[in-house]
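Help! Submission page says 'invalid entity' but I think these are all valid:
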Amino acid sequence: MRRAVLSVITLLGVAAGTLAYAHPATERYIPIGKSPGVSNVKSYLGKISSVQADDSGFMLFVKDTERPIAITEMTRIYVDTGPGKTNLVGTEQDCKAGRVVEAYLHEDGTAYWIKVKSY
Amino acid sequence: MLGSIYRCWILGAAVLVCACETIPVEPPEDALVLKGEDLFFNETFSGNGRTCGSCHRAEDNFAIAPAFVATLDDDDTLFVAESNPALASNFENPVLMRELALILENQDGFGDLENNFNMRGVPHTLALRTSIASNAGPRTGWSGDGAPGDGTLRSFAVGAVIQHYPKTLNRIDGVDFRLPTDDELDALEAFQLSLGRQEELALPLNLQGVIASRGQEIFLDNTLGKCNACHANAGANGDPAIFGPGAGNLNFNTGVEALPDQPADLTGEKNPPDDGFGSPGTGEFNTPTLVEAADTGPFFHNNSVETIEGAVAFYNGDAFNNSPAGQLLIGATGSGINLDATQVIAVAAFLRVINALENLRASDALLETAMKYPRTNDRQATLILRATFELQDGADVLRGGGLHPKAASDIEDALRELDDALSGRNPARYVRAAREAMTSAKNRMEN
């Protein structure tokens, strides 16, 4: 049974990607910079310096370096609309130059989730 | 109450004299674990009043079954959706909660609360040290993707507060709840890791009952029961001989969602299909431990099967054998799983006996810790009480399968001794007698 089972496991690994064991749904309500085990460790927090014309991503200015962030169909975008207001599900269009963003990336550089401050 | 010895020990260290104790005394339990326990049962995180213990009940194996739900008062925090108007719709389904102990989870996001949710049972939080790690990362919850952040057990509590604790569905941090601090996450993790079994069994055990012994053989036989492939050593991890070393806790689509006549559907309540791991989901669910199974029904992620015999029999049906995992098994071994009634009962008997053995092990460990506290200490009583929950399950699990009646009687004797320990002024004597009866019970089942 060894070979057949092993091949399925390999498939499973491809489908799962690298971060999929974490859950992106409740992430919506976790404030920017507060994601447990991710913020200050694995995510990038900065300001959008420029946006790709086709909305496929943006450059994020983190400390003193610019970093490209690629948005895919699978990227979750959550919008922080201000203190005391509920966080919303957003789109690429919410990622505007000058806005504060936290981005958590897959190993290939595409974003797993993005949190953007709209105020 | 950590006891006067501990306080005295701190005092002693500070002033170098101590009237009641001259040598430093090790506190009987780890301070971080105790802090985590307090948070787990008492901290509401400024939310709707629930705690982790609202659903993960110490009296019910850190899970919650319909029979236990039925014992709760209407003002219990579990039922908060019935009393808080802001949570009246799209937060829980009171019918499914009361009848089947199902909890609403917005596994695939909070965008369409009316239609996008799953109804899942509450898994126990026992033996987590053995049942989460995998080569691909930590796997928590029924579909292995329950925790936000880095996906670890430590982060799980943050998602639990957001899902289960809000005062309103706006779910605003600082308004509807507060999220746990880093220190609180550390403590909650330490407490949860301390619960239950800390290591895997090493099968086969030298079981004394003929039916359970045969059940163990079937379980381990990769051409017959085929259970051990996914539940190695009756735990939650894939057999390393098949899946490679360190494969750990794996996800499979075993077809539970394809079962006909699922109880939740029979109620007529809205119950969208659960697509399992990821979103959109792959249909896969995470392999649970089986040592802890027999006393934590109903079974599977949707509480669809009430008895352990039924859960074993599931593997004979079309739902499993036509599932991706069933097809995989057929491709790899030439056949699916096809046990006859006597064999189903034997495998279930095996699962009942290893569960009862774990009840004995766990209660013995609780009693050992209890007796490190000074006499009639509150904490001592709590631990003795918790040992009685385990023992009662052990007796029930054996009696429910008609197994080892003498061992069940021994366990019932131990329970009577512990009742006396809890009401008397000298618990040590009764605890000693209880532990002797427990050893006798164990030896009747395994040695």
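Support: the input was valid. A stray whitespace character was the problem, and the output above is from the cleaned input. Strands of chain A lie at 44-51, 57-62, 65-70, 76-80, 88-89, 100-105, 111-117.
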